[in-house]
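Escalated from tier 1: protoporphyrin IX containing FE holo job.
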Amino acid sequence: MYISGLFIASSKLKLGTEQNKYLSVMLITTFILALGLVSALGYAIYHGTRHDPREPPVISSGIPFIGHLIGIARHGIEYIGLQTRKHPPYPILSLDMIASKIHVVASPGLIYAVQRNNKIISFDPLLTIVAKQVAGLQGDALNIIREVESEGHGLGREIMNAMIPTLTGKSLDKMTHQILRSLRPFFDDLDGIHTVDLYDWCRHAITVSSTDAKYGHLNPYKDRATADEFWSFQSNFSLLLADLFPWLTARKAWKGRELVVSAMTQYYLLGGHENSSDITLALFNTARDAGLSIEETARLESIVTIALLSNTVPATFWVLFDLYSRPKLLGSIREEIEHNVLRVTAHGLHIVNLSDIRDNCPLLISTFQEILRTRTTAASMRIVMKDVLLAQQYFLKAGSILTMPAEAIGRSPNIWGSSADEFDERRYMKSVSSGTGIENKTRDARRVGGLMTFGVPPTLCPGRHLASGEILGLAAMMVLQYDLFPASGVWQEPRRSSLSLVSVMGPLKDPFNTIVRKREGFESTSWEFRLEEGKGNFPLQVG
Ligand code: HEM
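Tier 2 regenerated the structure:
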C-alpha cells in the first residue's frame, strides 16, 4: 500500500516521463531503506536486552541505535580512533551497530590476547566480505573463497598465501625495479611546470608505476579512463559495503568497479598476465586451479589493485607534505641523501641507489616511520568466529567485530611516553655513543603498538616493502631535484576524505595546488634509479 501510495504521489506531480521514472525509483529506494531501518531497530531493541555483563562496556552515541553508523559515515574509519580518545580509561569498549557490536581495543596488553586467539578472532572472514560486497562475487565462487571454518573452501586465504612470498626476495626486486624505471619520467615532466596539484601528481605517478610493474606491457591502467574509473570505485568504497542495490545506492563505485573488472577480464583474455609479475600470476593460477572463471578472477584482482594503490598514494603525498613543510628537517634529509646516496658520474649522470637509502639514511627511514605513525587512521579488523573470553575477562560474542585502532594504541603514552602525540623524526632511532660527542642514532628495538600502520601480526601487510621502496625512492628523487611551495602561501593541512574506508593513510578530499621549482645546482636532467639485488626489504618496525 505504501509503495502504491508513493507511485500515486509521484504521478500526481506533472513531470516528464523520465523525471517521473527517476522520482519513482528514488521513492521506492527511500521506502526500502526506511523498511530496513525499522527492521534493524526492532532487532536492536531485542538484541539490546541480551547484553552479557561480561561484555566490554558499551559506549552510547548521542543518537540512539544509529549514532555510531552516522559517525562512521561522517568521519570514516577515524571515528573509531576518536571514540577511544573520548573514553580513555577503557582498555576495550564496544560500539553498538544495530545488528552487531564493534569491540575497540585500546590497550597494547589486549593485542597479545587477540593474537593468542587468532584462530577464533580472525581476519579471514573479511576476505569473504570484501569479495562479496566490494568485488561483487556471488554464488559458488563465494563459497569457494569463504574460509574453511565457515564451511567454505578457503580460497581467499589460499590466494593470500600464494601472493605473500611474491612480495619479498627476487619477485619484490623485479617489481621495485620496474616501479623505479616507470617513476623517472614523471620527474622529467615536472621540469618547466609552474603549478601542479600535488595529490593528483602522486596519484598518477604511483598508479602508472605500480600497475606497470604489476601487470606488465598490457597494463589496463595505462589507459587514463580505466585508471579514473578505478579511483572512482576506490574513493567511494564505503557505499558499496552497505550492499543495498549497489547499482543505485553506490552508483559511482559500482560503475567504476564494473568497468575495471571488464578491463581486467579483457587483459586476461589477451594473455597480459603471462608477461606480468609473480604476484599477478600467483592470484591467476590459484584462482584458475580452484575453478574460478576469468571474470570472477578479474573481480578478485580488483581487490589487490585496491591494496596496491589505496594507501601508497596518500602515504606518498603526506611524506612530501611533512618533509617540505619542515624546512629544517628537509635540509637535514637532503644532506643525508646527498652524502650517503647520490652519486654523480663523470658524464653528469645523477644516480639514486635505493639500497643506500635503506642502509645509509637512518634519519629518512625514521622520519618515514614517524609520518606513517602520525598520519595513519589504520584500525586492524578481525571477526569473532566463536564466543570467546578475551584475557579471561571480556566476553566477545560470535559474529561481532573487533578492531585495534592505531590512533589509540600507536599514540599511547604507555608506549611512547610524554612525546607520544608529538612529531619526533628521530623516534625510530636510538642513541648510541659514537665516542665523538655527536649523538649517533640507529634503529630501536620493536615494541607492540609501536607502528601499526601496516597492521598487527599475524596479519601484517605483505606489501610494506614494496610500498616503502616506492615511496622513499620517489621522495628522495623529489627532494633532490625540486623545491615545492604551497600555492596558497602556507603549508596548511588539507582536508581528508572519509568515503574510502579502505585507505588508512588519509586520502585528500580536494586538490593541493603546489608551485614547483627546479633546485639550484641540480638542474641536470640526467637522473637514474638503481637497486641492488636482495636489498628490497625495509626493516621497518611493525605491530
Ligand atoms: C603505505 C602503503 C600501505 C599501507 C599503509 C598498508 C596497510 C595495510 C593494512 C593496515 C593491512 C591490514 C592488516 C591488518 O588488518 O592487520 C594490509 C593488508 C594487506 N596489504 Fe597493505 N598496505 C600498504 C601497501 C600495500 C601494497 C603496495 C600492497 C601490494 C599488493 C599491499 C598488499 C596487502 C595485502 C595483500 C594485504 C592482506 C594481507 C593478508 O590478508 O594476509 N599493501 N595492508
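Residues 1-50 form one domain.
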